[in-house]
Structure formats: C-alpha cells, structure tokens
C-alpha cells in the first residue's frame, strides 16, 4: 500500500505539532509533502528533517531569507502562491491550522489540491463557510472539522445521516473564572485570564475561553457546518472537559460524545490511519461520567454569551465583525490597554454601531471582502484605544 500524502499548513503551532507527533509514530503510512510556518523557521527545519519533507513555506520575509541560507534538502517558498509548484496532483489530506484571518486564503486555496481537508482555522468556518463549502462541493473535497466539539458532533452524525437533529449542546469548561465570585472580576489580570484549567493553549484563545467568546464562535461554526438554527444550539458548562457535545435527534435519541482532554484524539481520527489507536487509551472515567455537573453559563459572569441573541440565522459579514472586534479587544487587553471587565462593555458598544449592524444583511461574496472588513474594524478600534 502506498503512503498517504499529507500537507500541514501551520505546522509549528499546537495543532500542527500534535499532528506531527501522531505521524512520527506511523511514518511508514504517511509522506508529508509540505510544511508551512510564519516565523518559526527553527522548528520548521527540525520538523522537515524528522519527516524528510521536500517543500517548505515560510511567509515571514526576513525568516524566509534566513531559511534560504540554511543547507537543508527542501525547496523553500515565501507564500502560498507556490501551491501550483508543490502539488502536481491531489494529495490525500491537508491540515489547515494557520490561526487568524491570515489562514483564510491558504485554506480556501488548498481545497482543490486535496481529497480531504481538516480545518482548524476558526475564522474560515465562521466568516467564509459559504465560500468554502461551495469550493468543497466544486472540487469534491471531503471536509472534517478539527475542534474537539465540532469533531465530536461530526462523528456522532456520521452513522445517523438520515436522522434529523433537534438540538446540539456544546460544552464549555467555564475557563479559569467559572467559580470566581462576580465581585472579583474587576481584579482579573492577564496571568489569570491565560491560565486555562484543562487545556494548554496560546494566550489569545485562553482569553477567549475566559470570556467564553470561544463558545460563541463555536456556536456560529456549528450553525454553519451542520446547517442548524442558532436557536437549536446551546452551551452547557462542564468543568472537566470530558463530555464535548450532546446531539439530540428528533427520534428521541441522544448521543453524548466523550474523550480525554487531548487534541490528538480528534486529530488522529481525521487521518484515516491504519493504526487502531495513536497510543494506549485510558479506560472510561467513571468518576467524571458520574459527575458531569452540567449547567447553563452565568450570563453576569460571561455577558458575551448574550451576543448569540444578536446573530443572524445564516452566515453574514456580521460574523466577520464579531471576530474582528474580539481579536482587537483581546489584543488590547494583552497589551494592558484595557481591563478584562471592559472587554464585554466595549464589545457591545462597538457591535451596536449602525455602520456595523448593516453587515447582518450582507452575505460574504469573497475572501478579500472579509479581510478588508476585518482591517477596517481593527483600524477603527485601535485608533481609539492606542
């Protein structure tokens, strides 16, 4: 059996590194043809050597020049326009794990070069799903979501394609402030907000978890991927992050999807590996299962969850507005320009502006339109707070 050809966009981030760890344990079945990074050329070189990768893309111009001077057995490119030179035919699998809106174009452009695409770039699914979905259908490319919640829902639906969904419940750990008294929220500092109790994540996504904005985005993703009304999607707090999603079908059946707090599990299951498992698995955790402690989010602690009432039933450019406002405010918080408790107040004051509310009725037509809107929103906010 020939090796499956794989490309990893964003290989030096947490998702990319987890995928590489899995492949290293099953090298005889996979050939990695491309790795990409933005700045981390040292990690990229190390990964390329371990996997004998023949093509590398590094988008940072300075680090591209540094990488070009290194004596490594690989072709070095500076941008994603080089896909045509790298992919002579469709590869078996591409992982898109570039973070932020910067991942939109490469994710869209990668679709035609692969039989299957696993997408970990939230912005692509939130802001441009209609555009991506059209491209997926056009190229007959299979799509799998990588986020643990959406992968769980997807896996639950695989064997129930004919059953109609009644409701989907997405779980949230509650982040570091689930049990923090409300009167102490004004004292929250950066070091507190990035201390997630269950997952190892970057600063930005950790702050999103602490405000629960990450769950708002996951609801939007689920609306898009599974074509479900916002009203039929619910968030439940589950502190242990053991239960990832519940799907309720109209035939009265519920499916609960459970796995350990390890992103390698959903990543491994997107691969179609010949191995039955990627490592020795733990048995079911009876204690956690008997103590799920499910509850609705406290809207006084997590006011951003109320944004769900303002979101249109179908994809629109307002989703890009939400992503842009959040990204900018989190960045300002991490730069100590605004307080944690101010994030939600400023958020609502911005998204209620007439010049932004109008985007609720505009469907995105192309990725440049999304990128231009994000830049516009960021400039407006930064000009006020920087």
Task: Please provide the ordered H/E string of secondary-structure elements.
Answer: EHEHEHEHEHEHEHEHHHEEEHHHHHH
- Radius of gyration from the alpha-carbon trace, in angstroms: 21 Å
Tally of discrete structural domains: 3
- How many helices? 16
Regions with pLDDT < 50 over 5+ consecutive residues? none
Report the structural category.
alpha/beta
Strand arrangement across the biggest beta sheet:
4-3-2-1-5-6-7
| Sheet having the most strands | 7 strands, parallel
Number of strands: 11
Helix fraction by DSSP (H/I, runs of at least 4): 40-55%
Shape descriptor: globular
SS strand fraction = 15-25%
Rounded average pLDDT: 93
Give the termini separation: 57 Å
Could you give a short description of this structure?
The chain has 386 residues and is α/β, with parallel strands linked by helices. The chain contains 16 helices and 11 strands. The chain has 3 domains: 4-146, Rossmann fold, CATH 3.40.50; 147-309, no CATH class; 316-386, Orthogonal Bundle (Rna Polymerase Sigma Factor, Chain: A), CATH 1.10.1740.
